[in-house]
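anyone seen this seq b4? input:
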Amino acid sequence: MTVGPVPDLLLAPLPDVLAGLRTSADGLTADEAAARLARDGPNELTARPGPSFLSQLVRQLVHPLALLLWLAAGLSLATGAVTLGVAILLVIALNAGFALIQERHAEHAVAALSSYLPQQAVVVREGRQARVEARLIVPGDVLVVEEGDAICADAKLLSGAVEVDLSAVSGESVPVVRTADVEGPPATRVIDAADVLLSGTTCTSGEAQAVVVATGMATELGRIAGLSGRTEPEPSPLELQVRRVAWLIAAVAVGVGVAFLPLGMLAGLSLADAAVFAIGLLVANVPEGLLPTITLALAVGVADLARRGGLVKRLSAVETLGSTDVICTDKTGTLTQNRMRRHSTWDATGRHSPDPLVRAALARVLGSCTTADVSSGIGDPTELALLETAAELDQGTPPVERREATYHFDPRLRLMSVIVPDADGDDLILTKGAPEAVLARSTAVLLPDGGRAQLEPAAREALTRRLADLAGRGLRLIACAWRDIPPPGGPPERAEVERDLVLIGFVALTDPVRDAVPDAVQQAHAAG
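predicted toks r here
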């Protein structure tokens, strides 16, 4: 089956994609999936073959300084200095063996890390959802994507909307919205397409289904891996310096030896004796201890990095790290704890530290309108932080309420809502989301005494300015609201739920800086 280049198919209209892949929203049959797997191969990135044991050994034996030692050993043996020649050969062998063992050990450790990568995904086959190994996914499969899922293939969205982290492909750390309902002109690049999911990215919120267009090395991530696999490793700064030093030592040693040959003959030595003496001078100028000294110094650096959780594949990379001028680092989870914490709370009138009734209302919304589980630690960091905030506000973990309906977070609406039964027999809509989205759907505010007041335009503008100021300080803001409704006969439409809300208040979250970061930054500055 030929469907055209993968990028063109990903950018094509959805009906053309389904027709080109001979699939539908019900997915493939088991037999068709097996046939495509046999034709296209498993959904895996083909790793570039690593250097063989022999090639690695040869690389250690032809090191520029090792070549000088080979020359010194050969000349020593040729002039009868067997002990010196054997000693130099042992230095070469021990140094090569030590460096080889260290690098092989690091490569095996890096390869072992692949076992921690996600191995499964959920697909629709013959109209039913099934969990399969990610390597068995084929073009034409319908992929089910939920919050927290790692996306394992390039796919075209069929339905739903999600936020995805594209950092593995684009380097951009801010999640972007991907939706099946695309508006505006079509994208010209796959990475910019609003209805395309790429392998190697992660769904941070929302739910969607997408038809798989490319797997394995045919994906955008596979293309990047293929390009990087073509590049040859460049020599490190240390290797370049050692190469220059080796040539300088060789030139000096040979120059001294050649210069002494006529001087020895002028001093009355025979040609043979002068040659032996010249060779002795040449060997003496070769620093036999320099190579093992460099190797041991690098090994000490490797051991120090290993104690700190670093893994070094090439010994010379240790010195390269010391040559760093600029450090480009991720913020979340590296400089910060990647664990959101409550910074502050406000009521709907903009007052800091709300009264008990408002605190209890905030806790109820945050504790019930969530997808996280604080006891197991499973969920988005923001969701977990909001659950912890609910426990702090209510002086204990809020009880889990039975939900009449759930409206999952929609990246386009930037809202999540649930319907729970209330004590008076009515149902209660609990909504949380981006402050501007909740404000736009609120018509009243909750007062400290439990009463309600109309949300006037002036108050709305004042809240908007206050929220913009807080967001400018790097805080993540969440608004909470609710509304009473009579028990419906069935789940109402979302548009009927998230309107005429009563604004309760706001929660500001922050990701604290790791304790070791200030010292690390100072050490980096001190190191130049």
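Residues 112-117 have pLDDT under 50 and may be disordered. Residues 53-112+234-322 form one domain. kinda curious what u guys think
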